[in-house]
């Protein structure tokens, strides 16, 4: 159930509210975005927690996002599948802003979802640190061991996932195939 998932997320983040880490401010016109801004080993910016697409696409620290979209066009069948089933599913994507695989694949996932006009309210982006942990250990119930990991959920239950490059490295087609198979 969506309610159970989001209740878990709320409780997990509520328990971290008293830590000394830097948290995002929430305003009425923005979705809840609890995260930390950390410095990676090389001094670059790293995000950890629930983040928004805008935090990644509009921050010049993450120039890799635009760089990795230059020659990508989402698969038309995948776009159609996402459009057809968008109201029935939610998608959770775990990734690391430091991770080369995430830097390559996250723009492709988000490009597909944008092309399909997938509702932002049904997409959750969760940034992990190099230990692949996040605030409130949200990664644990999802058994996250590698990133990026894209998880398709229906009625609060996982119906499929793609870990890193998946089976074919065509993650847009694989995500579309998972979504197309949902009843």
Structure commentary:
- The chain has a 6-stranded mixed beta sheet.
- It contains 6 helices and 6 strands.
- The chain is globular, with a radius of gyration of 16 Å.
- The chain has a single domain (2-180), classed as Glutaredoxin.
- The longest helix is centred in the middle third of the chain and has 16 residues, at 100-115.
- The chain is of the alpha+beta class and 183 residues long.
- The chain has helices spanning 2-14, 53-57, 64-67, 76-85, 100-115, 171-180, and strands at 35-39, 45-51, 90-95, 123-127, 149-154, 157-163.
- The two termini are 16 Å apart.
Number of domains: 1
**Highest CATH level, the class:** Alpha Beta
In this structure, how is the largest beta sheet organized? 6 strands, mixed
**How large is the radius of gyration?**
16 Å
Number of strands: 6
Instruction: Supply the number of helical segments.
Output: 6
Mean pLDDT level? 87
Features of the shown structure:
183 residues; alpha+beta; Glutaredoxin; six-stranded mixed beta sheet; 6 helices; 32% helix; 20% strand; globular; disordered N terminus
């Amino acid at each position: 159930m969506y309610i159970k998932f989001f209740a878990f997320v709320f409780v997990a983040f509520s328990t971290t509210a008293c830590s000394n880490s830097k948290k995002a401010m929430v305003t009425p016109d923005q979705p809840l975005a609890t995260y930390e801004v950390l410095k990676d080993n090389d001094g670059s910016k790293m995000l950890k927690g629930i983040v928004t697409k805008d935090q990644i696409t509009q921050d010049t620290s993450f120039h890799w996002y635009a760089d990795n979209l230059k020659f990508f066009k989402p698969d038309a069948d995948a776009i159609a599948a996402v459009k057809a089933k968008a109201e029935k599913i939610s998608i959770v994507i775990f990734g690391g802003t430091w991770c080369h695989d995430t830097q390559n694949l996250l723009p492709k996932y988000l490009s597909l979802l944008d092309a399909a006009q997938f509702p932002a309210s049904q997409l959750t982006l969760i940034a992990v640190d190099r230990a692949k942990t996040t605030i409130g250990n949200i990664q644990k119930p999802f058994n996250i061991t590698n990133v990026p990991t894209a998880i398709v959920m229906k009625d609060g239950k996982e119906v499929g996932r793609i870990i890193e490059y998946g089976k074919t490295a065509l993650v847009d087609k694989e995500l579309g195939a998972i979504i197309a198979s949902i009843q």
